[in-house]
Amino acid sequence: MKTFNKCKFCILFLLILPYILIFGSCAPLQIVQVHVINRLPDGMTMTLHCQSHETDLGQSILEVGEEVDWSFRVNYWGTTLFFCDVQWDGNGFIWYHFNAYDATRDYRRCRTECWWVITQEEMLYGYNQETDSWEMLPFLNSV
């Protein structure tokens, strides 16, 4: 009976080991909180629509200085993806797209929190928890 329990433990360990090696301390089902902040100039409102493949968070209209935040658990497979479309006054009603959380990119960068700021220069900045610094990231294809 003891040999059987040791075998079960070894099999379980071998199944979990690759995940630990790939994702480090970002355990499956880790809770992550995402924040998106409007720092556009001159009172420009920002319309934000964020979702994952399973959850639509709806549309929010943010005044300058306001933020939207939500939290979720990273799925076991490390494939969690939340993406957002954003539009603001004065940009000709063009929608810009960015991934607010992509497990393959953010498992170290945003271990517990992802901070996003859309600035006066109409640029996207994301906070990197691993390097303790802000990074300018491009918007993806406009919608």
From TrEMBL:
Q: Which family does it belong to?
A: Belongs to the plant self-incompatibility (S1) protein family.
Supply the SUPFAM superfamilies for this chain.
Cupredoxins
Mind listing the UniProt keywords for this protein, alphabetically?
A: Secreted, Self-incompatibility, Signal
Superkingdom of origin: Eukaryota
GO annotations of cellular component type = extracellular region
Location in the cell: Secreted
Question: What is the protein named?
Answer: S-protein homolog
Q: Major location, coarse class?
A: secreted
Gene Ontology process terms (BP)? rejection of self pollen
